[in-house]
């Protein structure tokens, strides 16, 4: 029996979270759900602290304290976003078959530490820009800190190489980690990310490692997505490139996400709360359902995880009951019912 905190989230999120919970139960998973909200901070932390993992529905501003606690409170440093072909899902590619990679996004550092301020705060710090001009000479304005720690890079890089090793074993081929940074423009911060990741690579001689500039990688995602296996990225590039990558296989509606720390993990769809389609029963629950399958993997409930994935894939392969975002006509509940029937 696993104890799972479940947050339904905001706007259209409850529609996909209810679908995922229904399917996980139907798949025979052994789970006790602890329903939680971000409204009372102490209850919210209790629900998370007394659970094995969280299934999270995307949050608007109202629920930000929950996501802050799940990420920075529980130190879930590795955000894993699998990008896998979904049969019959509409995509911009002429042929989207055979795409199968995973983005590992650093989840706590980089520009997301939330240290921003007025340039006036920095004027006495003795900092100069690339042409030697003191910060104070730039006039009024703002700045953000891009914070990168050696231990932070090491732990997310190890997650990426471990994942590459696991995937190589499952697929009987050599694993590869592709690193994307802007080490040319940011030699100190992104250069450090790249150097430390390449150091970690030496602990994994069985895994290939490739390093590209992040902008070059954005192009390669489109022209040669089948060459990718595990993609390791700093926080900001990982956020942006994972939305781009999702478009290759059917869009945000099919892209799940798991955020892993040393002793806790939470699972959510890669997409936001989709406020524009809330309450219409048209949101695609696939991303949330596949995130719940990642949660079952994490909990060691392998059989229910396999049943959930194969039911979802069979509904896509059959193709007549898909939601509007991937080119079909079905409602959220029609799609959910089809997955339940496949189970
Ligand atoms: P956030 O800042 O939380 O990431 P966002 O601005 O990126 O949010 P999303 O909520 O991800 O916005 O939605 C972007 C667009 O994709 C919206 O038009 C939304 O309706 C659509 N969308 C997102 N998720 C789904 C889904 N599961 N099914 C169908 N459409 C979706
Ligand atoms: Mg977004």
TrEMBL record:
Coiled-coil blocks: none
Top-level taxonomic group: Bacteria
GO-annotated biological processes: isocitrate metabolic process; tricarboxylic acid cycle
The entry's keywords: Manganese, Oxidoreductase
Keyword Oxidoreductase: yes
InterPro entries, per database record: IsoCit/isopropylmalate_DH_CS (IPR019818), IsoPropMal-DH-like_dom (IPR024084)
UniProt-recorded Gene Ontology molecular function terms: isocitrate dehydrogenase (NAD+) activity; magnesium ion binding; NAD binding
Gene3D superfamilies linked to this entry: Isopropylmalate Dehydrogenase (3.40.718.10)
Residue ranges of every copy of the Isopropylmalate dehydrogenase-like domain listed in the record: 3-339
Presence of keyword Ribosomal protein: no
Family listed: Belongs to the isocitrate and isopropylmalate dehydrogenases family.
Protein name, UniProt field: Isopropylmalate/isohomocitrate dehydrogenase
Species of origin: Rhodococcus opacus M213
């Amino acid at each position: 029996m696993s104890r799972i905190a479940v947050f339904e989230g905001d706007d259209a999120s409850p529609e996909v979270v209810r679908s995922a919970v229904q399917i996980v139960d139907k798949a025979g998973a052994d789970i006790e759900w602890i329903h939680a909200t971000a409204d009372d901070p102490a209850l919210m932390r209790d629900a998370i602290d007394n659970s094995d993992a969280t299934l999270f529905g995307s949050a608007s501003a109202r629920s930000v304290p929950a996501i802050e606690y799940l990420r920075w409170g529980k130190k879930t440093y590795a955000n894993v976003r699998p990008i896998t072909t979904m049969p019959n899902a509409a995509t911009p590619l002429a042929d989207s078959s055979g795409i199968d990679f995973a983005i590992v996004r650093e989840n706590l550092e980089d520009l997301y530490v939330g240290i921003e301020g007025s340039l006036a705060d920095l004027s006495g710090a003795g900092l100069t820009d690339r042409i030697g001009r003191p910060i104070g000479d730039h006039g009024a304005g703002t700045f953000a800190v891009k914070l990168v720690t050696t231990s932070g890079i090491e732990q997310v890089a190890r997650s990426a190489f471990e994942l590459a090793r696991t995937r190589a074993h499952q697929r009987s081929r050599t694993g590869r980690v592709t690193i994307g940074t802007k080490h040319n423009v940011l030699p100190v911060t992104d250069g450090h990310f790249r150097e430390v990741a390449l150091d970690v690579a030496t602990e994994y001689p069985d895994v290939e490692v490739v390093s590209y500039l992040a902008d070059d990688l954005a192009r390669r995602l489109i022209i040669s997505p089948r060459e990718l296996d595990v993609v390791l990225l700093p926080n900001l590039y990982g956020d942006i490139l994972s939305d781009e990558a999702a478009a290759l296989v059917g869009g945000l509606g099919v892209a799940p996400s798991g955020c892993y720390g040393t002793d806790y993990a939470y699972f959510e769809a890669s997409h936001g709360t989709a406020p524009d389609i809330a309450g219409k029963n048209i949101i695609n629950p696939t991303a949330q359902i596949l995130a719940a399958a990642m949660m079952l993997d994490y909990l060691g409930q392998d059989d229910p995880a396999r049943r959930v994935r194969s039911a979802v894939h069979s509904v896509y392969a059959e193709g007549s009951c898909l939601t509007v975002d991937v080119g079909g006509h079905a409602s959220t509940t029609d799609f959910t019912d089809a997955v339940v029937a496949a189970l």
